[in-house]
Design a protein that fits this description.
By secondary structure, the protein is of the alpha/beta class. Helix content is 39%, strand content 14%. The chain has twelve helices and twelve strands. Bound molecules: pyridoxal-5'-phosphate (PLP).
């Protein structure tokens, strides 16, 4: 057999996917396992979205697919951006449909960096940001977030000019794994860095509707002077309860969107037309169940954070946004991966060790807090027993 590519050897498996696979394998042996690893809605996709897709599947089968996405879908994205985010985006030229934010990230990188370019990624940060940079031929460079200041980006980050050239930065807001929602002032620090070094900014905003405590979500692209250098990733995976539908979109400057459309013409083509039709409806006229879900998810995140914060050895601030609580277990003086393993094996609760998200996550655990309430209460009982018996 010929040798496979170096890339296939070098790029790490997504740690969240690997742990989720292990949890699925354990589930087969132990029905009682509580899985708090992956942050996805367990609620069913609202009926009206499903019915729209079903109707489209049976009635619109001759529709021509466009790599850029259907006009209907892109117009729905533009009207959502105007209504909810206060942004005027040209549906024709500045938006492209993707099969979720992961595809959006890869496409955005391919359209902005050259082989060997360095790309700044957050540490701790979303597990796929760095490896996707590598897949696209770039070199991820970790930016250590400030553990003592709500995981803010450093105010003074000096980049080396020269080789490899830093060409872009990637951030998630709301942030995964820490649950921080960036204030306008914090985003201005990142924007100033991008302007100083002439960087592209890839802003992963897939949790933008999941912001808690009435705080606003600020789109990085809305800051003065940032539209021309910002590519924003959005997706219906999380807050529209459409995880397995694989649909999202990217908006940004026309030349980048055009590049992405070109790549998609070769690699992925468009997104399925019946999914786009259903997603257009969800964006234009979000079914009321979705607001109920958001209210419930916020309540659950607060409940889980408060309960864990009261456990010995665990500190946990209420998440500002997203689906996770981020638990500081440094006081236990033990490795976070070992703590996660003991919780899984001895107590039947699967959580992710913070170090899966980068060196800066060491000493933390990430828990998905949007499971149904009875499951979360059972998980809290087990966690409480685990922390008491440490
Ligand atoms: C920050 C962040 N970005 C992107 C993704 C992937 O999004 P999608 O399912 O739309 O590809 C996730 C979730 O897995 C995430 O947490």
């Amino acid at each position: 057999m010929p040798e496979r590519s170096r890339r296939a050897d070098d790029v790490a498996t997504s740690s969240t996917v690997a742990i989720a696979d292990a949890v699925v394998r354990m589930h087969r042996r132990d029905d009682d396992l509580i899985d708090l690893t992956i942050g996805r809605a367990f609620e069913a996709t609202p009926r009206v979205i499903v019915d729209t897709a079903r109707r489209s599947m049976t009635e619109d089968s001759a529709r021509q697919l466009s790599s850029r996405g259907s006009g209907e879908f892109r117009r729905a994205c533009a009207s959502k951006l105007a209504r909810e985010n206060g942004l005027r985006v040209d549906a024709e030229r500045q938006i492209v449909a993707t099969r979720g934010a992961k595809e959006g990230l890869m496409m955005a990188l391919l359209a902005t960096i050259n082989p060997g370019d360095a790309v700044l990624v957050e540490d701790p940060g979303f597990v796929s940001h760095g490896p996707t940079v590598e897949l696209c031929g770039g070199v991820p460079v970790s930016v250590p977030l400030d553990v003592d200041a709500r995981f803010a980006w450093p105010r003074t980050l000096r980049l080396k000019r020269g080789s490899p050239r830093v060409r872009a930065l990637v951030l998630a807001n709301p942030q995964n794994p820490t649950g921080v929602v960036r204030t306008k002032a914090e985003l201005e620090v990142i924007a100033a860095l991008a302007r100083e070094y002439d960087l592209w900014v890839i802003s992963d905003e897939i949790y933008e509707r999941a912001v808690w405590g009435g705080r606003p979500h600020v789109c990085l692209a809305s800051l003065a002077g940032m539209r021309a250098r910002t590519i924003t990733l959005m997706s219906l995976t999380k807050t529209y309860a459409m995880g397995d539908w694989r649909i999202g979109f990217v908006f940004g400057p026309e030349p980048v969107i055009e590049g992405i459309t070109k790549f998609k013409g070769h690699a992925f083509a468009g997104a399925p037309s019946f999914v786009q039709r259903a997603a257009a409806l969800a964006l234009t006229d979000p079914p009321p169940e979705l607001s109920d879900f958001l209210r419930q998810w916020e309540r659950r995140c607060q409940r889980v954070a408060e309960a864990i914060d009261a456990m010995p050895g665990a500190r946990c601030s209420p998440p500002e946004g997203g689906f996770f609580v981020w638990v500081d277990v440094r006081a236990l003086g033990r490795d976070d991966a070992e703590i996660a393993e003991r919780l899984l094996v001895d107590h039947g609760v699967a959580v992710l060790p913070g170090s899966a998200f980068g060196r800066g996550g060491a000493g933390f655990l990430r828990l998905s807090a949007i499971r149904d309430e009875p499951t979360l209460e059972r998980a809290l009982e087990r966690l409480s027993a685990a922390f008491r018996s440490r």
